[in-house]
Amino acid sequence: MDLIQLFIMAIMPILAIFIGLVFLKVSGTVMSILGWLTAAIIAIVFFNTAPDIMIYASLNGILASFGISLMVLFTILQVTMMDITGAITSISEYIKSIAAERYEQIMILNVGLGSFLVSIGATPVTMLPPIMIALGFSPLASVALPCLGYDPLTSFSLLAVPLTLPATVFNLDVSLLGNNVALFLPVVSTGFALGMLWVADGISGVRKGLFPALIAGLTLGISCIIFVHILPPQAIGLVGVFSGLVTIFVLFLLRVLQGKPVIGKKNNDPKKPETDNILPLWRALFPWAVLVLFIIIISIPVIQTALYNILGPLQNIHIIANKSVDLKILNQAYFWVLISTIIAAPFLIRTRAEAEKILTIWMRRAWAPTMAAAAFFAIAYIMDWSGQTIINNTLTFVPGTEDLNMNAVIGLTLALIFGAGFPMISPLLGLFGSFVSGSETSSNVMFYGILKKSTDVLSIDFMQVYAAHAVAGGIASGIAPAKIMNAAAVIDQLGIEGEVIKKCAPIAVILTIITGLMLTMYIYL
User: Fold this and answer.
1) Separation of alpha carbons 392 and 372, rounded Å
2) Given this model, what pLDDT does residue 273 score?
3) Residue 325 — φ and ψ, nearest 5°?
4) Bridge-partner residues for 324, per DSSP?
5) 473-515 per-position pLDDT tens digit
6) Cα(358)–Cα(345) distance, integer angstroms
7) Looking at the predicted structure, is the pLDDT value of residue 267 above 60?
């Protein structure tokens, strides 16, 4: 079988998922399972992967997915509690009072707040859709906008794990990587801001919200460039946190300069007497406030070490040969989402019946996106481990077969086809990797070897190519089935994933192409 035939086989899982979601309108849960089966069969039949290696790869992927899958599970619990108890209503009423225009709501919530939340380890795609629905946005827009808004800062999400993890694993200069990523963000973040207006209200929305969108996008991108430069490498995790807060501040400052109120006013509309009885804002925000406090505390190195040592080697799960997964449970954001939810529950839940309702709705909403997130990670690891075997208790390639790997075939085929034009096309690998796994971190780790080999062969700057790959991986969050399923689940809209992808795909593709153009200019000009 020649390289092109192997290439077609290697991309078959992603094609199957895309066709099923977009054209056949099969649910994301079903397609994640079918995609896993497709990847498993192709890895075994066409890439000489032993069945047990495929199974262990899947297990590794499921355990590695905990940072996302359990985050989804517990965030949906927190958001469901806030929804049922009226906290979301309280927050949305306040937001409506300080941002009466739809385009302001989109920018403040999804660009500013969304970027801040994802940077501290929270999940905008499960927190913001209920608020968007409450503000009067359509179900499609309520799912799509939170998936798009934080995408420029995905590389700095979870306290910059998508950058710090591969930097640690592959011994990279994290400051240099962060600086290269930040160079793309003013253009990318502005493009997302404009794209979100188009998703919500078409071209008329772009015209109405053009100026705030430009301000929000440029502020977010330029702030990242500044903070990456002034913060020490060990504090790179705070880049996204500060950039999101600065963007919110600038948007509020813009309202002040326009003579619009910043402090919310009480709603005295006689047609809505129920707003007089909504939760006080401090109680509504209490779960998030506790979560932010915990995330800041556990980011302190001494506390990180102390928390890890509590469980120590008990949380390091051996998979096979030299492969293991260190869960780092007490250091993970999802654990503290659960703890913050438990702490906040007495302040929000009023009756036992309300508690039972929360748990019932949570279990109905959460199982599908949680399972899908795990399945997408399993697919990513099957592709990454394909063609490998165990030699001297190490999972590796038989000498001379290094290229008989699904990811390697995809990357090398593109490099051979495009040659010096590879920088233009390379960000598509980031789009592809994050689309499959639902995680930029996984994509950055998965494609490191491919990009390193390709750039070495072509004698071009690896760090710039790798940064563009990371940026495109963040762009893919807007069309990643796992992310869209999470957002749809919290507002009981599972089944619209395909429509959301079709609406958001042009934005993602256009911005990825722009990223490729910028990369080509940086390298050759």
Assistant:
1) 34
2) 42
3) -125, 120
4) 318
5) 999 988 888 788 878 888 888 888 888 988 999 999 999 999 9
6) 11
7) no
pTM metric for this prediction: 0.80
Do 323 and 56 meet the contact criterion of CB atoms below 8 Å apart? yes
Under a CB-based contact definition with an 8 Å cutoff, are residues 236 and 228 in contact?
yes
Cα separation, 46 vs 380, in Å, equals: 17
Residues 6+ apart with CB under 8 A from 434: 440, 442, 443, 472, 473, 474, 475, 476, 477, 480
pLDDT in tens, 51-65: 999 999 999 989 988
- Residue 522's Cβ-count burial label (10 Å; 0-12, 13-18, 19+) is middle
Print the SS3 string covering 222-263.
Answer: HHHHHHHHHCCHHHHHHHHHHHHHHHHHHHHHHHHHCCCCCC
Q: Residue 305: enclosing H or E segment and its boundaries? A: helix 301-311
Question: Cβ distance 496 to 134 under 8 Å?
Answer: no
User: How many CA atoms lie less than 13 Å away from 325 in the CB half-sphere?
Assistant: 16
Torsion angles phi and psi, residue 523, rounded to 5: -80, -45
Residues 76/369, Cβ–Cβ less than 8 Å: yes
Is there a contact between 495 and 205 (Cβ–Cβ < 8 Å)? Answer: no
